[in-house]
User: Fold this.
Amino acid sequence: MTDAYSPTPRRPGEHVLAALGLGAPAFSPADASPHTFPGGGRWRTEIPSCEGPEALAVVLAEAERLDVPVHRISQGSGVWMLTDAEITEMVAETTERAVELCLFTGPRGTWDIGGSVRTDSRGAGPRARGHDAVAGCVEDAVRATELGVKCLLVADEGVLWALHRARLMGIVPADTTLKVSALIGPVNPASYAVYERLGADSINVPSDLTLDHLTGIRRVSAAPMDMYIEAPDDLGGYVRMYEVAELIRRGAPLYLKFGLSNAPGIYPYGSHLRTLALDTVRERVRRGRLALDLLARHGADGAMAPLGSRLPGFLNRFDLNDEKNED
Assistant:
């Protein structure tokens, strides 16, 4: 990795295309994000869909073998799909390596008994249906944080707001970070800013947003953004490796999230999917190596946030006093 970020990295194929009279226009400083992570750095990495201790061990070993820096590892099936012993083991392994572990909270509508999520419109999607589903998410959050988990993944605005308030009240640790799932990712600057104000510390946007969409978001919010550089098929299957440098330039501070297209889904995970889960996390790390190699070839591999960094910095929040005044 280079020590300094180049604001004008080489574009793919730039020299050849320029010689052919097909060169691209110069980068515009106006569309670059001015934001960074606290402590410096414009990008971090995330390996998603790491569903238990065995998959985690594969990710950590493969990351070491391929020299892929990892800031965060996330799980998608949910806290409730792991035993206390499994969570404790994952916490210990990630803590030892200063990697953030993020676990998904509670029930979601796509697994619930509601029929609307199976219609063409998908109804309420993955959101928590009813009081009991919110309660399950909160139960998961308390259990996970008591076992040492410091990052929680949410797919419902109400759950996000409830956990943010619980964090401020000391019910969950103050340094717990809340990450919005790609399943409900915002697609415009206004909704992105709302998630930030509801308590999100990291917001996963859909991988089909354009570069101009990212610039628009960065004009209203500095909240860290997550984006699948390669998205699972159920999220579109997009592969945007050649755009990584420009995604960072427009979207920083940005988590580069290495998913996997053309692979079966594994949620909710169990041992019946063991071989698939281990094979796919291994390939996700390799995809990370491919993307990082592209960054290096284009002179855009500088400005990685320090390994071990996880906090989002100062973010804008809704005033809790407004809610008290309504009561």
About this structure: The two ends are 53 Å apart (CA to CA). Residues 1-6 have pLDDT under 50 and may be disordered. DSSP finds ten helices and eight strands in the chain.
